[in-house]
Amino acid sequence: MNQQQPEQEVYIALGANLGDPLRQLSEATVQLVDHVTLLQRSPVYRSRAFACDPQPPFYNMAIQGRTTLSATELLHCMLKVEERMGRKRDGHNQPRLIDLDLIFYGTQISDRPELTLPHPRAHQRDFVLKPLLDLRCSIIHPRFNKSVAQLYSELSETTIVERLPSYDG
Q1: The dihedral sign for the CA sequence 9, 29, 40, 144
Q2: Other CB atoms closer than 10 Å to residue 137's CB: what's the count?
Q3: Cα(19)–Cα(14) distance, rounded to whole angstroms?
Q4: For residue 136, what are the CA distances in angstroms to 58, 131, 140, 149, 153?
Q5: Domain hosting residue 113, numbered range
Q6: What is d(CA 93, CA 116) in angstroms, rounded to the nearest whole number?
Q7: What percent of the chain has pLDDT over 90?
Q8: Distances 108 to 38, 51, 72, 73, 98 between C-alpha atoms, Å
């Protein structure tokens, strides 16, 4: 790690639909705590897969944390967590053991090929926005200058099937 960055508030979306998704979400959260001070985690939601091909439902959640890593360093740590957990990158909208997406890194906006911030499709996905609402509905999307609550209310399509009971995962 280079010189220490100022601490940033981050929001990370987690998803899984292969294997034991609840266990995998829990394991990924544990591994992320090596890089992010966990402030809170959302409930888990089960949703229809966001793909044309039939596949198992997804389990999604989000975490709010703080980190002194740069956005790029955090992204690389997240990719390593995915790799350690067996994630294979076989294309978009494919089934996966774990998926970690950096949604917000403070108020940073980035359009670099290796890192787009905020996440470029988060504002279109209920399975990302709903868990964020549970963490803090007043989060402002720095690109659109709208709250997560506003973005969620503007969605035309939803995939969430149910909110799962709390668990200690």
Answers
A1: positive
A2: 13
A3: 15
A4: 22, 9, 10, 9, 15
A5: 8-163
A6: 18
A7: 76
A8: 20, 29, 12, 14, 25
- Residue 119 and residue 101 in contact, taking contact as beta carbons nearer than 8 Å: yes
CB count within 10 Å of CB 30 equals 12
The answer to the question of residue 168 being in a domain is: no
With bands split at pLDDT 50, 70 and 90, how would you rate the model's confidence at 63? very high
Strand partners, 37: 66
Q: 2 versus 113: which is more confidently predicted? A: 113
Q: What is the pLDDT of residues 126-147, one digit of tens each?
A: 999 999 999 998 999 999 999 9
pLDDT confidence of residue 168: 54
In this prediction the pTM is: 0.92
What does the block give as tokens for 44?
């888990």
Residue 102 sits in a domain whose CATH number is: 3.30.70.560
Question: Which burial class, exposed, middle or buried, applies to 167 when counting CB atoms under 10 A from its CB (0-12, 13-18, 19+)?
Answer: exposed
Q: How many C-beta atoms lie closer than 10 Å to residue 28's C-beta? A: 26
What single-letter amino acid sits at 32?
Answer: L
Q: Are 119 and 103 in contact (CB under 8 A)?
A: yes
Q: How far apart are CA 103 and CA 101, in angstroms?
A: 6
> Is residue 15 domain-resident?
yes
